[in-house]
Amino acid sequence: MPVLCHSRAGTDAADRDAGGRRGHGHCHRNPALTARILILGIGNPGRGDDGLGPAAAAAIARMALPSVTTSDPYQLAIEDAADIAEHDVIWFVDATMSGIDPYTVDEIHPATEIGFTSHVLSPHAVLGIARDYFSRTHRAFLLAIRGYNFAFSEALTPQAAENLADALAMLTRRLRDTGTEP
């Protein structure tokens, strides 16, 4: 029996691509696991290592873990707050041009003031929107995976691919535990 995961417009709202939103992974609910986890893999796969976030989301989606939903937007949008409001633990996964190899993990909190333009919305801001408009607060983490080449390319650099593998190993452990505690 299908589980309704994304109540959006479409012929089959339990379908992976319901309502035209791309990137949602399969949604399975396990009553024993109460935390509903959302992985947002942010980035542009056409810009080399900027595709680390979507690559991580795709790898997690293939695992079909219970209570885990994935999405891979190029950038965050106000509408992502609605998806966030439906989950308990949020993992933002993105590439970073600088930072510690292979990745860093930071627990993040909603912005106290929400400021954005039509092209930039931070994880903190979208959490703030979820809090302010859906009355939901979440446990949220930013997983920043070190990338090296952000030029036009659809391939990850070998070193970024290694960093992705290390980050996925950590994230998979956390998701199987409860989705938290990096």
UniProtKB/TrEMBL annotation:
<dbReference type="GO" id="GO:0016485">
    <property type="term" value="P:protein processing"/>
</dbReference>
<dbReference type="InterPro" id="IPR000671">
    <property type="entry name" value="Peptidase_A31"/>
</dbReference>
<dbReference type="InterPro" id="IPR023430">
    <property type="entry name" value="Pept_HybD-like_dom_sf"/>
</dbReference>
<keyword id="KW-0645">Protease</keyword>
<feature type="region of interest" description="Disordered">
    <location>
        <begin position="1"/>
        <end position="26"/>
    </location>
</feature>
<dbReference type="GO" id="GO:0004175">
    <property type="term" value="F:endopeptidase activity"/>
</dbReference>
<keyword id="KW-0378">Hydrolase</keyword>
<dbReference type="GO" id="GO:0008047">
    <property type="term" value="F:enzyme activator activity"/>
</dbReference>
<protein>
    <submittedName>
        <fullName>Hydrogenase maturation protease</fullName>
    </submittedName>
</protein>
